[in-house]
Amino acid sequence: MTHDLVATLRPLLTAEASAEAHATGTEPGDLEQAVWLRLLERLDTDGPPTDPQGWLRRAVRSESRRTRRTTRLERPYETEPADDVDRAPEHQALAAARGRALRDAVRRLPGRCPSLMEALLSPMDLTYREIAGELGISQGSLGPERSRCLSCLRRLLTPEVAAGGARG
Questions:
Q1: Is the pTM of the predicted complex or chain greater than 0.90?
Q2: Chain segment 137-156, per-residue pLDDT in tens
Q3: Is 114 exposed, middle or buried (0-12, 13-18, 19+ CB in 10 A)?
Q4: Residues 142, 109: contact at Cβ < 8 Å?
Q5: Measuring CA to CA, how many Å separate 56 from each of 7, 66, 141?
Q6: Which of 9, 17, 20, 93 could lock 28 by a disulfide, CB 3.0 to 4.6 Å apart?
Q7: Residues 96/84, Cβ–Cβ less than 8 Å
């Protein structure tokens, strides 16, 4: 049943996501991925929609609006946050230690997460297209995969940050 529904909706979703993505400033694949996820969540809770094509069109537009709202709220940094110019040696040593701790935590991540996070942290500032090509995965799945990996990374780092050292 699910396979038939996916096969039936795939061409429509591709067309709808391509049409909406330009207005949101996002990749069509990212929009498609979000709608597929929404469909899977719906199938899990409420079963298949009674009007799959209508549901899909509404879901694409809803995800598109959500993306536009998110994009409007994001603001670029006024200065480069990783700028080490004019920092005292002790600050540079602490920053280096944090960097080592982060890279150590990244190496402990499950699955493809270490390679994905290393690509995202690369000083070469790779684009999503370059990262997808390097890792051999679709560009549309990078955003959701990145979110899952960051969640895992937060869970790994939270105990380490909370434990800290003795204070005072």
A1: no
A2: 888 888 889 999 998 888 88
A3: middle
A4: no
A5: 13, 15, 19
A6: 17
A7: no
